[in-house]
Specification:
Blueprint (H helix, E strand, L loop, with lengths): L1 E4 L2 E4 L4 E4 L1 E5 L2 E6 L5 E4 L3 E5 L1 E6 L12 H16 L2 E6 L5 H8 L7 E4 L3 E4 L7 E2 L3 E2 L12 E2 L2 H13 L5 E4 L4 H6 L7 H13 L4 E5 L2 H10 L3 E4 L5 H6 L4 E3 L11 H13 L3 E2 L13 H12 L1 H7 L2 H6 L17 E5 L8 H4 E6 L2 E5 L2
């Protein structure tokens, strides 16, 4: 058995660090304590944290250039490998990756984090998932049998869209409760009705799935949260009514893509409102923009509002709780998955995590080591 020896261990639930060794038994953490027997790996001067969890990525989003569809798939290979090397051991894809990516990871054809997929973002005609060009009409840059049609109109069609995603292997159902930021700014934000949102959430539950909802505006957040979406993504323009509606959901703010825009200050204010109201926060990077920003960037931005310990909690135990994986990962405790990251130094500073990563264990296997 391997013993990670000499490090401080971070507890995301308390925010505290304690000097301890961690013994691994295959894919699981066997024991946490001092003086443990086993094959030692020197982690002295380091901090052990749980493997990081990113609740909102797009590992296979199409590029803006007019490229064949294979480019979308092939680009994901180095993206996934890079995420794992930086200590991100579980991700929830929020549009773009199909069930084949999960199979490729499970078969070790490619390396990367554990992957949960939602396939495509459901929405009504004219919503974010419905691409239309004035000259060409409907344009589907993702459509193939593994990424079914996401467009619906009416509650019955919304249920059918959910069923299409489940049939194609979706772990989660994503719905566009608002349009894109561009649509919001242009005043052409086409949103599903409350009845349609309720049908999406109800049908997902009937199929054993939860719903994540893209929502920039307060009205969209209120509608999605009241319908029963488990997590609300972005929430750029929260107000008191939206924060109140979030009492029963998780908020995944995805600050990184907006951090250099005119809306960054408003977005941070929304996060502060949510935190002050006790809303549960989980971390997600919204990986789609190029150059890619990932969870290590998001954590730095979260820490500016939450503090370092709470930011790490949002990307470990709280993220696991959102994804219903908290009985398996997200903390360093006996019986849980051996997804672990060793950082140089014993402090909780997340301002430059990639520079601190010394080694990564995923499912009990050492997969990355700083050179």
């Amino acid at each position: 058995m391997t013993v990670l020896a000499g490090a401080h261990v971070f507890d995301p639930e308390t925010g505290e660090t304690t000097r301890a060794d961690v013994r691994l038994d295959g894919k699981r953490i066997a024991e946490v304590g001092l003086g443990l027997d086993g094959l030692p790996v020197d982690c002295s001067g380091g901090l052990l944290i749980p493997g990081l969890i990113d609740c909102h990525v797009h590992v296979a989003f199409r590029r803006p250039e007019p490229l064949p569809r294979s480019a979308r798939i092939l680009e994901a290979v180095p993206v996934l490998r890079g995420l794992l090397a930086r200590g991100i051991t579980t991700v929830r894809d929020a549009w773009g990756a199909d069930a084949g990516f999960k199979h490729a990871l499970a078969q070790r054809w490619i390396s990367g984090p554990d992957l949960l997929v939602s396939l495509r973002q459901l929405g009504p005609t004219g919503g974010l998932g419905d691409v239309w060009d004035p000259a060409a009409g409907a344009v589907d840059n993702y459509g193939d049998p593994s990424l079914p049609d996401p467009v619906f109109d009416g509650p019955d069609a919304a249920r059918a869209a959910v069923r299409r995603m489940v049939r194609a292997g979706a772990d989660w159902i994503k719905v566009g409760a608002s349009g894109s930021m561009r649509a919001v700014r242009a005043g052409v934000d086409v949103r599903p009705t409350d009845e349609e949102l309720a049908a999406v959430v109800d049908e997902a539950a009937r199929c054993g799935r939860d719903v994540l909802a893209h929502a920039h505006t307060s009205a969209a957040v209120v509608s999605a949260a009241r319908a029963g979406a488990r997590s609300i993504e972005h929430g750029t323009f929260l107000d008191d009514s939206a924060v109140a509606a979030l009492a029963g959901a998780w908020y995944v703010p995805t600050l990184a893509p907006m951090s250099d825009t005119e809306f960054a200050h408003r977005h941070r204010r929304s996060l502060r409102l949510a935190v002050e109201a006790g809303v549960r926060i989980a971390a997600g990077s919204d990986l789609a923009p190029r150059p890619h920003v990932d969870l290590t960037t998001e954590l730095r931005l979260l820490a500016a509002v939450l503090g370092d310990a709470a930011a790490l909690k949002a990307a470990t135990s709280e993220a696991a709780r959102l994804l219903r994986l908290d009985d398996d990962r997200g903390r360093i405790e006996p019986g849980l998955r051996a997804d672990l990251v060793v950082l140089d130094g014993v402090d909780l500073d997340v301002s430059d995590l990639p520079a601190r990563v010394r080694a990564v264990w995923h499912d009990g296997q050492r997969v990355s080591e700083a050179s």
